[in-house]
Amino acid sequence: MSETYTFSDVKTNVLSGLLIALALVPEAIAFSFVAHVPLISGLYGAFFMVLITSVFGGRPGMVSAFSGATAVVMTALMLKYGIDYVFAAVVLMGIIQILFSLAKLSKYVRIIPRQVNLGFINGLAVVIFLAQMDHFKVPSPSGAEQWMHGSQLYIMLGLVALTMVVIYLLPLLTKAIPATLAGALVTTFAVIFFHVPTTTVGNIAHLAGNFPTFRIPDVPFSWSTLYIVAPYSFILAANALIETLLTLNLIDEMTDTRGKPNKESMAQGIGNLVSGFFGATGGCALLGESIINVTNNALKRLSGVTTAIALMAIILFASHWIEQVPIAALVGVMFVVVEKTFEWSSLRFFGKLPAADVAIGILVGAMTIFVNITLAVVTGVILSALLFAWEHAKHMTIKTYDDDQGRRVYEVEGTLFFASAHEFSELFSPRNDPERVIIDFKKARIVDHSAIEAIDSLAERYRRRGKSLQLQHLSRDCLDLLHAAKDICVFEIDDPRYYIADDKIS
To answer: Taking Cα atoms as reference points, which of 99, 93, 90, 98 lies closest to residue 277?
Structure first.
């Protein structure tokens, strides 16, 4: 769908895109250090990902680039096998994400429970915050890193504070330019004008480079190569898609709009596939930079395209100027991002939500920080599902009475599934019941094969004792799965109509 732009839209998206480019440079460099890959590969990864996902993705305004979620996975592969195996893994990562999109699996990320989503968001905010702490370290005389102290620390903190003050106060005066860009520019000009001694982008690395060229990763085309890279590629793909799709969900909530997760997954896959063939690291959506765009109201594809063009211009032409930007200015921007990303409202849930939900959110946040995003979210979803099953299993009730014909009637209420099937069976007494029994499922719902097996087993218990059993208000689709109870079902016009997912009837 084509986008329309006003002059204000163009200005907002271009300025925000320029700021994102400034913010991505030190982050791409930092993550390149983490993964032990060439710095230029990390910058190329940011360029390809933000360009391709901005043009073809399903969530305009979301920023994708080389990220911590992918960098930490690459480290072991890089150290053991070298950069070409990393590029091969990125290519396979892209293929996996494309297949994920073609299978239309992205929509299932929307079933992730709210407490898991909150845990991920808060955990990622802490990860972003902790990542900035490395900028407060300097080499010691012995060569090891140590924390800043004295005037060096005070200057760094002062510049960070200056950036944050400008970002928070400028919107009170004007919204003509993005506050985050203004904060970075004010701090940069202050450092240059007053000759403030502080670390700049140029102190970390020189960014001059050439336009990326196509090259096939120099690895053997064999099963042994696939055996090496496949595990890394699957973890990379899972980490990247989870972070991307959860970020997409968050932006949907913040903007009250609806992104297209399958389209975004396809764009992510294409971006990583292309990256691997152009000497780039690939990547995924970045929550922090995406929040900057949302905060600046830069929700058009133009913002990402501007970021990509600015990144390549920095690499080719403007590296000397960008190298003068103080790291403190970018740290200040990221601190504001952390504050806006963290769901402070979630702290009010303590004592108001069930303790189990709160515990799951805390666990997911901790695992996001200390383990990895994929395992954190998967663990949270599994625990939430088990908690859901346990809670629903406790709501199985039966009302019993004898009708005017002397028949014992059981009215079942609740959800019958694997967690409640055993309790369901224990609620009946074939030995003590009269000769004729009716089980009414009008207020119950049959969910899975375990429920069908429980009904069949119960019918067999009554049959062995020679008693007449009648089942009422089951779905007609249950007949395809029932055995012992097939002939004792009585159907009426108001029977439920729902479908049972089972291999036997699929």
So the answer is: 90
Residue 141 to residue 310: CA distance in whole angstroms: 37
> Which residues are registered as beta bridge partners of 412?
398
How far apart CA 321 and CA 217 sit, in angstroms, is 33
What is the spatial distance between Cα 49 and Cα 51, in angstroms, rounded to a whole number?
A: 5
Looking at residue 151, its pLDDT comes to 93
Structure tokens at 350: 């303590």
* Six-digit token string for 20: 């994102």
pLDDT value of position 281: 94
**Dihedral angle over CA of 171, 172, 173, 178, nearest 10:** 0
What is the Cα 266 distance to its own chain's centre?
Answer: 15
The structure's pTM equals 0.68
pLDDT tens per residue, range 487-503: 666 655 555 555 444 44
Token duo for residue 481 = 């799965």
What is the spatial distance between Cα 209 and Cα 29, in angstroms, rounded to a whole number? 14
- State the pLDDT at residue 157: 96
Helix (H) or strand (E) holding 469: strand 468-472
- Tokens for 396, please give them: 């199985």
- Residue 132 reports pLDDT greater than 70: yes
Dump pLDDT digits (tens) for 56-93.
Answer: 999 999 999 998 778 878 888 898 999 999 999 999 99
Cβ(272)–Cβ(283) under 8 Å? Answer: yes
The pLDDT value given to residue 487:
67
Long-range contacts of 253-258, Cβ-Cβ distance < 8 Å, separation of 24 or more: 254/294, 255/61, 255/294, 255/299, 257/299
CATH of domain 394-505: 3.30.750.24
Higher pLDDT, 186 or 486: 186
pLDDT surpasses 80 at 118: yes
Phi and psi for 37 in degrees, rounded to 5?
Answer: -100, 160
Highest mean pLDDT among 263-272, 384-393, 423-432: 263-272
Alpha-carbon gap, residue 120 to 361, rounded angstroms: 8
Q: What percent of the chain has pLDDT over 90?
A: 29
Say whether 468 sits in a helix, a strand or coil: strand
Total residue length of the chain: 506
Per DSSP bridges, beta strands 64-65 and 489-490 are: unpaired
CA 218 to chain centre: 32
Residue spans per domain, the chain: 7-133+198-320, 394-505
Q: How many CB atoms lie within 10 A of CB 299?
A: 22
pLDDT at 480: 61
* Residue 178 contacts residue 296 (beta carbons within 8 Å): yes
In single-letter form, the type of residue at position 456 comes to D
Beta strand 284-285 pairing with 64-65: antiparallel
Indicate the pairing of strand 468-472 with strand 436-446.
Answer: parallel
